[in-house]
Amino acid sequence: MTSDSARLPLTSSIVRLLVKEERFKEAHDLADSLLRANPQPTPTQANVLAGLAALIGALGRAEHLLAIVESDPASVSAGSPPTAVSQAAAHLTAAAALGVCTATLPSMVREVENQIDRYASPENRAAVRKEVLARPLSLAVPCLGTATLSTVSSGADPLGAMQLAFGRHDPAAVRAHFVALTRLRRGYLPGDVALDNTFQEAWLLMAVGDSARAEQHLCVPLSALPTMGTRLVADVPQAAAVGRSLDFCARAAARRGDAASARRWARGLTALWATADAPLQPVVAEIRPLAAASDR
10-42 burial, b for 16+ CB within 10 Å, e for fewer? Predict the structure, then answer.
């Protein structure tokens, strides 16, 4: 008999399997039911539910759940950022992961900065900024650009190098870093790389005009969802990247006249984000005609 503590992770695993099988409506419905059934989760439960919220575009719930995770005293260690800082960064991470390019996003960055000034000692502020802002600011590049990211990223990692080259308006360097990255990953399966990384890399390629390479880089892995790792719906940025990738690939297929592929990905997105929060509904509305289009 399955215990209550084991039931939620087990059911979350079923959501992941449904996503891998492209049964997006069923994945949405099960994730939504789990979120409704756990309105006041413990930090441990919130850690499971946050990814499910991001998966179905429940932005506000994803922000709240990540903040609950960061409030867990058991997760605080001697070197952890102050809880107020981590919670502010949690809200930013969820919004950036889901690509919410509104005026709210810069204000979230300012709130994290304010909390760092309030709660981190002057000698630790630079380290805390890097720890809590590096990933959300990387996720937010399509919305915010790279100016703020450059203050916390050295570009030592391949994605960071591509992003900083993009910020310098150097498309040749973006392409060169991407070529080097593909050499490093020779022999990888499509799902061996976290989907949020693949999405960001494809976005950068599209931004510098390499649309065919961008589509190949992201939409081949999206066609190989069964190869994705176990954290596909457990990690908020990865879970959020499922919907964003469906949107990206639907639009890319439509631009080159592939109605069948555009319809496939658009139907996936409209099912997965059927009840997405208001900031994401314009994306769903824009993509819905592709879901209904015929091959003619």
Answer: ebbeebbebbbebbbebbbbbbbebbeebeebe
- Assign residue 216 a region (left: φ > 0; alpha: ψ between -120 and 50; beta: otherwise): alpha
Maximum alpha-carbon separation in the chain? 64
pLDDT in tens, 8-33: 999 999 999 999 999 999 999 999 99
> What is the 8-class DSSP label of residue 193?
S
Q: For 193-243, how does the pLDDT look when each residue is reduced to its tens digit (9 = 90+)?
A: 999 999 999 999 999 999 999 999 999 999 999 999 889 999 999 999 999
Give the separation between CA 264 and CA 243, rounded to whole angstroms: 13
> What is d(CA 45, CA 51) in angstroms, rounded to the nearest whole number?
11
The whole-model pTM stands at 0.94
